[in-house]
Specification:
By secondary structure, the protein is mostly beta strands. It contains 3 helices and 33 strands. The chain has a 4-stranded antiparallel sheet, with no helix packed on it. The chain has a 3-stranded antiparallel sheet with strand order 5-6-7, with no helix packed on it. A hairpin with a 4-residue loop joins strand 6 and strand 7. Helix 2 runs antiparallel to helix 3. It is flat and about 55 Å long. The N terminus and C terminus are likely disordered.
Length: about 525
């Protein structure tokens, strides 16, 4: 079963490069962490950099006996499984404070955007922390019999596979309420930003819940003969590969309507935030649908010879590896135009939210394109010895073959400058203090969107940068955001998404009709703003 989430960008982004031990890069949206890892856990002291409010400073963290490190969008968890303990840092309201959480007997850790759940599968219990409106409160949830936990941006679903049941929590309008649904026979759970789909592959059936416009209503969909499920932030695609057919549902402006698309001979389907592309690799053609400004129109694209397709928030690149060529489409400023890029000798392509990097490993070189302020310009970077590249939303890090040397580029506030990071010290047992680059002026308004995969994570919904002040935040969060602004650091409430997020946090779930209407307006504004810019 193909993954339902856009590839290459996830909520919990942990990619591995093998050296003497594994050198792991784990990111939040605004920070990086690099560690040495073996089968027994973390070796010595990891290094962190980027936005300290999103986990970019771990100099005071005791990593002894840490077995795994997890992240959501703005916080990290260092799990000491054998001791039944954990340490968290980053944004406290997004899970960066777990001081009151009991980690004894924890078997699994999962996350949404701003919350974590630690499952104790063997004794039917769990602990949650972070934003209560994103799943950070599960005190009333019965975890007895839970076998799997899945998430979208704002909610969790805990499947009791053997009982044919499930329990959900988080944002009730985004999938956090699944009372009354029949989960018997469920084989897989998929998600968009605001909705879930529980697929019963053996029965040719499915149940959907959450925001109907984001795929939470599939009551009229025929799931017989479905072979693969795909999703972006707001829509699902169920491919019936054997029949050359597919059905789509969710936001019609983001790929939820594919009635005019010919799926015959389709070999692969890819997505970004609001669009899909169905590739017919064997005959060299492709079809796109969804938001045209984000890659939903590829009528002029030549797919002959395409071997791989990559995406970021609002653009695609179709790589013709054997020919040393590529074609790009979508938002030009986010990587949708690569007509002047030389793809000869390229060995791999990577993306963040706004840009692409094509690595020429055998030549010690790379080319970048997209938003120059957020990773689209790497002309000054020495790629000699680079073997792999990792990203968060607005920055890249290229790790060299030794595993103890790296170069970074992109937004310096969120990890795009690692010149002060002593990578040769990775794994040392002494505490290492790193320096976060000083902030510069606030970036200009975003003109292009970005993608987050809900993957496993990942990932996630969009919004436009609307204002550059903290006044958008509400009540108890106002002083925090104003403090961030007055200290010279970017307020997370510039954008409509963050305005919605922080203001929603002041409205209880059991709200009045007027409050619910206001929440709906915020959510609709978020969806509208998604067309113009990113969330972070």
């Amino acid at each position: 079963m193909a993954a339902a989430l856009p590839h290459a960008f996830t909520l919990v982004l942990t990619l591995v490069l093998r050296v003497d031990a594994e050198t792991r890069i784990t990111s939040t949206m605004d920070a990086f962490l690099v560690q040495l890892h073996t089968d027994t856990g973390v070796i010595g002291q990891p290094l962190c950099w980027g936005d300290t409010g999103a986990g970019g400073d771990c100099s005071g963290i005791d990593f002894s006996n840490v077995t795994e490190i997890f992240s959501d969008f703005y916080a990290y968890v260092a799990w000491k499984k054998d001791l039944g303990q954990a340490i968290c840092w980053g944004d406290k309201q997004a899970g960066g404070d777990c001081s009151g959480v009991d980690f004894s007997n924890v078997t699994d850790v999962r996350s949404t955007l701003n919350a974590f759940v630690a499952l104790k599968k063997d004794n039917g219990q769990a602990a949650c922390w972070g934003d209560m409106h994103a799943g950070g409160d599960c005190s009333s949830v019965d975890f007895d019999g839970v076998t799997d936990i899945s998430s979208n941006a704002h909610s969790f679903v805990a499947l009791k596979r053997n009982l044919g049941q499930a329990v959900c929590w988080g944002d009730a309008d985004a999938g956090g309420n699944c009372l009354g649904l029949d989960f018997s026979g469920v084989t897989n759970i998929f998600s968009t930003w605001y909705a879930f789909m529980a697929f019963k592959a053996d029965l040719g059936q499915a149940v959907c819940w959450g925001d109907a416009r984001s795929g939470g209503d599939c009551s009229g969909v025929d799931f017989n003969d479905v072979t693969h499920i795909f999703s972006n932030l707001y829509a699902f695609v169920a491919l019936k590969q054997g029949l050359g057919q597919a059905v789509c549902w969710g936001d019609t402006q983001a790929g939820g309507n594919c009635s005019s698309v010919d799926f015959s001979s389709t070999t692969d389907i890819y997505s970004n935030s609001r669009s899909f592309v169905a590739l017919r690799k064997d005959i060299g053609t492709g079809t796109c649908w969804g938001a045209s400004h984000a890659g939903g129109n590829c009528s002029d694209v030549d797919f002959d010879g395409v071997t791989h397709v990559f995406s970021n928030w609002h653009a695609f690149v179709a790589w013709k590896k054997n020919l040393g060529k590529a074609v790009c489409w979508g938002a030009a400023g986010a990587g949708g135009n690569c007509s002047d890029i030389d793809f000869r000798s390229v060995t791999n392509i990577f993306s963040n939210g706004f840009a692409f990097t094509a690595l020429k490993e055998n030549h010690g070189d790379a080319v970048c394109w997209g938003d120059s302020e957020r990773g689209g310009n790497c002309s000054s970077i020495d790629f000699g010895g680079v073997t792999s590249i990792f990203s968060n939303e607005r920055a890249f890090i290229a790790l060299k073959s030794s595993g103890k040397e790296a170069v970074c580029w992109g937004d310096t506030h969120v990890g795009g400058d690692c010149s002060t990071i002593h990578f040769e010290s990775i794994g040392d047992t002494a505490t290492i203090r790193t320096t976060t680059p000083p902030p510069s002026a606030l970036p200009s308004e975003y003109a292009h969107g970005a993608r987050v995969a809900l993957f496993a994570a990942a990932a996630s919904g969009l919004a436009v940068l609307l204002a550059l002040g903290a006044g958008c935040c509400c009540h108890s969060r106002r002083s925090r955001q104003q403090t961030r602004t007055s200290s010279g650091r970017r307020s997370r409430c510039w954008r409509a998404w963050w305005r919605f997020w922080c203001c929603q946090g002041t409205v209880p779930f059991e709200s009045s009709a007027a409050q619910k209407g206001q929440q709906a307006e915020h959510k609709e504004q978020q969806r509208t703003d998604a067309d113009a810019g990113p969330m972070v």
